Task: inverse folding
């Protein structure tokens, strides 16, 4: 029926046709006019409401026109119950048949301004909000199509707000709110409990969010892609979606649940190991579970919940949910902490190793669990009390007594070591990191390689990390597991190397779970790669030096020339490095080989006690000689033995 057949009004001049006879009459409700529908009515043409359009519970006003506009003075009085439903429908039946997208200018700003009691979307061509926000007091129901809000907000009511229940029904991956601008948000006024925001950034990508408030708060939700977001995330380990979520009140207690479609996953994203993350804007930061070296939280990861359940239809097989709790929120759309996304990784590797030089003459110091502890003499010199460990990665940056070129040929740096992560190459809070004592005190920098699971000779990714006294290798914050951003969360061979020791590698590929748990080079139960029969010698079991302290193994000390072998005599003798350290030390003005005060970060410091000494008590030359003489394959004990090689493919 036409509107006039089921409507009661107070003045003969309220409804004015403003269209040609060939089209259905457009409707205008004047400022101050009262129109009440007591039955199911239909509006075939466009409508502008500047007055009061009342409705009765369980009754439907069906709008077939192309344009609905609410003026600033418009209201929607409720005649009974929760009021009627205003249904936007296409196609329009004959005789004025059409099938178009409908435009809705909601006219809402705040307070008691126009609020539909109930709104229903039943248009496969969608409803497009234009010019101003829309508010629905009680229920928004999706039957067909989507509500595209552009740069405007869509408010859902609340009993704690301006009245109403603010529920949304009928949404699924084909029917939802499209936030196709960074400016428009789906807003639920003050509420507690779980509320699903069925949003997507366009008409073909449904990526909803759920916010569970334990403290009453109003929440604003929008979703876009990285390119459009003011806080884009770099790398390829995420999903190409950024949710902008902010609150009316900064203090809250809410769980954010984000659901993504698998088509949004980037190339290095791992569905079984990802997390919800929030933009922090500073780097590094400890806003999450671990230190992050980009501008997003770094949190503990795990599998998502599949299929996706943020729908009123069947669970979505191609979608995955994951959540995280927060207690503070941005209070405007541009607040840094208002941006959320999902990411996997970075691959976080837990590796433990000993370097023989620092384990030598350790005074039988042990950790809380009885494992031996290395000396941290480079961190706190027993001679001067100074810290000599450099702030920057010595495998990348020259130090006072070690040139970068001396290490560059041996230590090939691959992403993320040289791929836009300078924050991974230096300690930013040296006072804190090098101030730690006890078993977690820092011994030195080490170099960790992840090698291709199909070919152990192929280095896939590298990182410099910090070695603690108990053998744990940690990131540059001195405590987090070693991060490898932007590489696949996969299985790898693991190699550990040190600037004046022979490196070692696992004999077996380490699974993703093992990398997260612990790869322990210190115990004999971890098989270590060796060359086997090589140059006439059998190197089986010599990938590391066994039984250095009890049953514990360590990297062989003495590769002072950084050439992958240990030699006492020329040519290419490692003893020459010790000599150069001592003779060229600035305060050794007489060039004495017996100089005993060369304290620094030296390549020739065999036992890493912060002193390089050529002769006299505790000299490094003698220790190098003993290493060569007692090497298991050196059956004659000669210092001329030239076959101590690094056991790496």
Result:
């Amino acid at each position: 029926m036409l509107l006039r057949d089921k409507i009661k009004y107070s003045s003969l001049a309220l409804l004015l046709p403003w269209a040609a006879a060939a089209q259905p009459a457009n409707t205008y409700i004047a400022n101050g006019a009262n129109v009440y529908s007591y039955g199911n009515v239909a509006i075939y043409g466009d409508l502008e409401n500047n007055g009061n359009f009342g409705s009765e519970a369980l009754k439907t006003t069906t709008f077939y026109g192309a344009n609905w506009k609410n003026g600033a003075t418009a209201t929607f009085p409720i005649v009974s119950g929760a009021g009627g439903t205003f249904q936007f429908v296409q196609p329009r039946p004959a005789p004025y048949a059409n099938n178009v997208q409908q435009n809705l200018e909601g006219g809402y700003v705040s307070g008691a301004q126009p609020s539909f009691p109930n709104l229903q979307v039943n248009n496969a061509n969608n409803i497009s909000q234009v010019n101003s926000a829309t508010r629905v007091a009680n229920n928004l129901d999706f039957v067909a199509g989507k509500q595209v809000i552009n740069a405007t907000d869509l408010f859902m009511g609340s009993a704690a707000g301006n009245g109403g229940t603010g529920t949304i029904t009928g949404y699924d991956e084909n029917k939802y709110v499209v936030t196709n601008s960074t400016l428009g948000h789906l807003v639920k006024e003050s509420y507690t409990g779980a509320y699903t925001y069925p949003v997507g950034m366009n008409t073909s990508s449904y990526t909803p969010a759920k916010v569970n408030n334990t403290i009453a708060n109003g929440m604003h939700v929008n979703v876009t892609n990285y390119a459009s977001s003011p806080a884009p995330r770099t790398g390829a380990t995420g999903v190409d979606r950024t949710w902008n979520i902010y609150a009316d009140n900064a203090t809250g207690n809410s769980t954010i649940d984000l659901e993504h479609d698998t088509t949004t996953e980037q190339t290095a994203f791992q569905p079984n190991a990802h997390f919800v993350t929030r933009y922090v804007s500073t780097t590094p930061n400890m806003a999450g579970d671990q230190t992050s070296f980009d501008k997003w939280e770094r949190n503990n990861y795990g599998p998502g919940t599949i299929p996706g359940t943020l729908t009123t239809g069947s669970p979505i097989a191609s979608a995955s949910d994951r959540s995280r709790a927060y207690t503070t929120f941005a209070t405007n759309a541009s607040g840094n902490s208002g941006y959320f996304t999902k990411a996997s990784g970075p691959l976080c590797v837990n590796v433990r190793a000993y370097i023989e030089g620092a384990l030598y003459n350790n005074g039988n110091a042990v950790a809380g669990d009885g494992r031996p502890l290395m000396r941290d003499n480079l961190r706190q010199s027993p001679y001067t009390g100074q810290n000599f460990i450099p702030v920057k990665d010595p495998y990348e940056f020259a130090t006072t007594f070690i040139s970068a070129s001396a290490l560059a040929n041996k230590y090939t740096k691959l992403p993320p070591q040289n791929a836009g992560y300078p924050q991974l190459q230096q300690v930013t809070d040296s006072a804190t990191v090098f101030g730690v004592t006890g078993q977690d005190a820092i011994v030195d920098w080490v170099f960790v390689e992840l090698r291709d699971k199909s070919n152990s000779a192929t280095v896939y990714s590298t990182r410099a990390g910090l070695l603690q006294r108990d053998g744990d290798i940690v990131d540059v914050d001195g405590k987090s597991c070693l991060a490898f951003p932007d590489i696949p969360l996969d299985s790898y061979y693991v190699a550990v190397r040190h600037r004046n020791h022979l490196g070692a590698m696992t004999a077996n590929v380490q699974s993703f779970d093992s990398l997260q748990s612990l790869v322990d080079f210190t115990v004999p139960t971890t098989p270590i790669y060796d060359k086997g029969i090589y140059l006439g010698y059998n190197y089986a079991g010599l990938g590391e030096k066994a039984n250095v302290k009890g049953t514990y193994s360590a990297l062989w000390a003495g590769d002072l020339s950084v050439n992958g072998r240990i030699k006492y005599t020329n040519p290419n003798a490692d003893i020459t490095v010790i000599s150069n350290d001592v003779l060229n030390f600035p305060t050794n003005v007489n060039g004495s080989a017996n100089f005993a005060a060369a304290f620094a970060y030296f390549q020739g410091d065999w036992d890493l006690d912060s002193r390089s000494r050529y002769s006299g008590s505790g000299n490094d030359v003698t220790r190098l000689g003993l290493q060569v003489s007692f090497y298991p394959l050196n059956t004659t004990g000669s210092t001329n033995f030239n076959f101590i090689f690094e056991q790496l493919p």
The chain is about 5% helix and 30% strand. The radius of gyration is 35 Å.
